Amino acid sequence: MELVSDISLIRGEEELFDRTAHLFVAATDIACAADDLYTWALSRPSLTRQGERLVRDKRIRKLYRPGVLLNEQTARHLHHLSGLGAQIRIGTEEINETILLDERVAIMAGDEGKAVRSYSVISRPELVQGILSLFETAWLAAATLETFDARFADIRQETPQMLEFLTTGCKDDKAAKSLGMGVRTYQRRVSELLVALGVTSRLQVDARARELGLL
Prior knowledge:
This protein is α+β, with helices and mostly antiparallel strands. Helices cover 50% and strands 17% of the residues. It has two domains: 7-141, 2-Layer Sandwich (Endonuclease, Chain A), CATH 3.30.870.10; 152-212, Arc Repressor Mutant, subunit A (Orthogonal Bundle). The chain contains eight helices and eight strands.
């Protein structure tokens, strides 16, 4: 497997995959950690037949935050990948958005707040092993897709209405009544939704939901 360099800084997804596409094709073991399906271009919810064959032919592990399960399309995509043989887990803790190829190359995503996102491509063995150790720790602490999705099935159905209530400042008692549940149940569901979105307060819901394409 040809490496691009010891450590390279790349700007933008287009350049990233122009320079590393051959590494993805050659790799037989791919581990990916991301906040959502749109961090990495090759993870977006559209698979060609060739892409499906590549999934079947490789060991693929994908670790995501719960927000990916709040959208019906992305949830179906993950279950489809799982059916092809990819191992998928969901973790609630912050993760370093990373791809590891054959435990020899690590690609780390930079700050997404920049106009053009940067990516570090690392092949220095001691650095790759350190990144791999962090991934393995997060992987072991995460839940399987099936286990986590069972918890979020109800929340996913209620998400559109709950997001509308939260972003318009609707009172909890009125929102709960609209959903046919008690106030405490509604507040618990809101807390679960905040975890799924990866935010810590209701004030952050609008921006995060838009990032995930939920609004």
